[in-house]
Design brief:
The chain is mainly β. The chain has helices spanning about 5-10, 90-95, and strands spanning about 1-5, 20-30, 30-35, 40-50, 55-65, 80, 85-90, 105-110, 115-125, 140-145, 145-150, 160-165, 175-185, 190-195, 205, 210, 215-220, 225-230, 245-250, 255-265, 270, 275.
């Protein structure tokens, strides 16, 4: 059963129990302007598959960027979830927990006192005005799962982001664009390294710069970044067509990672989650 949690219940303060489980939501947005007049906002869904009551607390933000004009003193936002049920956390209530930013993008650390399943929907609000800010969102969007701490990409392994899309040698606007979101939940910096399959050197265009793997960058403590990424254009002068490609990476500590593939003809995004290379 899905229910909308009233604001009064969300603003209760509760301690996280001894059996707490931390989750990382690798991307969350609140009234975030994007390309082509898009505006992105996220709502969170919390499922309790157990036979006992549970609660979820919105923890520290993993800050990407924000506009903070009408700030508030953030309360502790705790959501009760009845056994065998799902609660919807409206975007407005998460924004209150973040200190009432006018715009925000980043990740979230979420804490639960029982095993929960967390999902979210980042919705393109463009053209969907007039909605209740404390109600459900309408518009095209993408689902982004919350990842348990011990399932995050970690040191000592290689991961791939499969089936990203690019449009090399586009004669007009590129039809597809891909971006990777990195959310560092740790109190120390994390090193992220792009690598090739089986250690091979490959060329990538990262934030419009041509690089050859391995290529590393440092992600600051409790920071979130978006990296735009595509395959290089070829030397041919003919118009290119969209193509699929995979990206491989390693991290020096547990990090939230996901990719978005956007069809620029519709502004419709697709979520890609990392896969462990075995």
């Amino acid at each position: 059963m899905r229910k909308l949690v009233p604001l009064a219940l969300l603003l209760a303060t509760a301690a996280v129990g001894a059996g707490a489980e931390d989750f990382v939501l690798p991307a969350f947005a609140w009234h975030l302007p994007g390309s082509a007049d898009n505006r992105w906002t996220s709502e969170v869904y919390v499922t309790n598959p157990t036979s006992v009551p549970a609660s979820l607390t919105v923890g520290a933000p993993i800050l990407g960027r924000q506009k903070l004009i009408h700030a508030c003193l953030p309360p502790t936002v705790t959501v009760p979830i009845e056994p065998l049920s799902t609660a919807v956390v409206p975007a407005f209530n998460v924004a209150v927990a973040l200190g009432c930013p006018d715009e925000f993008v980043g990740g979230l650390i979420l804490q639960a006192d029982e095993w929960l399943v967390i999902n979210s929907r980042m919705t393109n609000e463009r053209g969907a005005g007039g909605d209740d800010p404390q109600g459900l969102l309408t518009g095209f969007g993408q689902e982004i799962p919350g990842v348990p701490w011990d399932e995050l990409p970690a040191r000592g392994a290689t991961y791939m982001l499969p089936s990203l899309l690019a449009h090399p040698n586009a004669c007009e606007a590129r039809r597809y664009e891909s971006a990777i979101h990195f959310a560092n939940p740790n109190p120390a910096p994390v090193e992220v390294t792009f690598v090739g399959p089986a250690g091979a050197a490959v060329e990538l265009v990262i934030d419009n710069a041509l690089v050859t793997t391995p290529k590393s960058f440092t992600l600051a403590a409790q920071a979130w970044v978006q990296v735009k990424l595509r395959v290089p254009d070829s030397m041919l002068t003919v118009c290119g067509v969209p193509t699929s490609f995979d990206v491989f990476f390693q991290v020096s500590d547990r990090t939230g990672v996901m990719a978005s593939v956007v069809d620029r003809t519709t502004q419709d995004p697709r979520t890609v989650m990392p896969v462990l290379v075995r």
